[in-house]
Amino acid sequence: MENKSLKQIIDNRLEKLKKIREMGIEPYAYSYHCSHKTADISEKMIDKKVSLAGRIMALRKMGKASFSHIQDQHGKIQFYIARDDVGEKNYNLFKLTDIGDFVGIEGKVFKTKTGALTIKVSSLTILSKNIKPIPDVKEKDGEKFNMVSDKEFRYRKRYLDMIINPATKENYIKRSKIINSIRNFLNKNDYIEVETPVLQPIYGGANAKPFKTYHNALDQEFFLRIATELYLKQLIVGGFEKVYELSKDFRNEGIDRSHNPEFTMLEFYQAYADYNFMMEFVEEMFKKVISDLGMKKIEWDGHKINFSKKFARKTMDELIKEHTGYNINLASHSDVFDTCKKLNLDVKKKDSLASLIDEIMRRKVEPNLIQPTYVINHPVEISPLAKIKRDGDNDFTERFELFIAGMEFANGFSELNDPIDQRERFEDQSKKKDSGDEEAFPVDENFLEAIEVGMPPTAGVGIGIDRLVMLLIDSRWIRDAIIFPTLKSLK
User: Fold this and answer.
1) Which of 199, 283, 311, 397 could make an S-S bridge to 386, C-beta 3.0–4.6 Å?
2) pLDDT per residue over 459-482, tens digit each?
3) What pTM value is reported for the model?
């Protein structure tokens, strides 16, 4: 086969497809009853009759008897098929199969002389004939070689990636378990799951550039949401006391190892709570997820992450002092800018305070935050939705960000519920937007009207699900945590 062109291989399989139909057999079945999965087969089942289905992943055709392997979602198992056991017609059908075909098999479990659990086939059914071959699926003595290894190819052809690399599929099964664990945790704590609009006439809830779209019937511009925050807090105003949403959010930003324009976000809000409560709650949630997954040790990119200890809490300015040696007034644009220059960071005088602080944190501090650490008390200018610190320092807010393995995982705060203060901060954001800051967001009158009705003391948190998956599958790339990541089109 190695010496054949792709066209020759496809033509050969189309010819086999024709022969199968000439035998009076439909090569694309409607259904098949499976009594077991591959993972069910054990020594206790020897001599028991079973029926399984899966994709052929190895073939050793040997005249009147052959060995093969089929793979389902749960694993792989060998089967043995002989003409004397299945009859000439059924064996001739088997001879028309290829790697990549889906088949159903019935037979008894036995063990070969080499100790391999095997199905001795009494009947084989073709379920789906493969036309285009699976690339580079080769195996010898149980070891794969010459596999598809190019990551870009694997991201674009995820279905092939999962066929060839079952560990990829396991990562997404783990992702499902992570999300289910979070849901169960919130539901057991009396949170209500809700759904809010993806298409929003005014975007808000985060500093990010949105994607734009247009609704023809309404003759109106809309934005894909960058966050669910402002809608969820309207539900708190409306009388819900605990709400959450697992949402797809969209930010028109660059793509790197920890950012994808389309991503999954968890946001949850609780009335009568503050950011101190939420730090305890988030820590409990993370530890529960890890427990539910049965992960006693977490390793990421060579780092051992210790979740058994209490999460550290450090202010932003003390972390900057710790990792740069500079005392800094985070509320002063000039002080922060001067410090950036001393640290040889590539910044400009016109850069916003938020971007200057982000540059220091991203370059000098965050990579060092390996163990779970809450960065607390952020400047008010970069926290337009958080309450001022209750100690009377009007330059800082009750906000935290959770960092693990050098990445941000959660962002939370004591929510601002003073409508007058909130309007002033929105208007300040709007001025920045008018001055060219594409990540500032506009005034949302609907939200302001809602909190003018009255919003109780509330704490809220956003958690990046994709990054949590990255951590728990030990990957440095968000594309490994998302089944179908955003990719540039091939020309």
Assistant:
1) 397
2) 999 999 999 999 999 999 999 999
3) 0.90
Q: Which amino acid is present at 210?
A: P
Question: Band of the pLDDT at 142, cuts 50, 70, 90?
Answer: low
Give residue 1's pLDDT: 43
User: Is 94 exposed, middle or buried, given 0-12, 13-18 or 19+ CB atoms closer than 10 A?
Assistant: buried
Please answer whether residues 386 and 418 qualify as being in contact, where contact means their C-beta atoms are separated by less than 8 angstroms: no
Q: Do residue 64 and residue 199 come from a single domain? A: no
- 363 occurs within a structural domain: no
For residue 421, is it within any domain? yes
**Is residue 459 domain-resident?**
yes
70-104 pLDDT, tens digit each: 999 999 999 999 999 999 999 999 999 999 999 99
What are the b/e assignments for 366-392, b being 16+ CB within 10 Å?
Answer: beebbbbbbbbbbbbbbbbbbbbbeee
Q: Do the Cβ atoms of 175 and 470 come closer than 8 Å? A: no
Cα separation, 117 vs 312, whole angstroms = 50
- List the domain range (segments joined by +) for residue 183: 168-311+372-480
Residues 299, 206: one domain?
yes
- Examine residue 367 and state whether it is found in any structural domain, yes or no: no
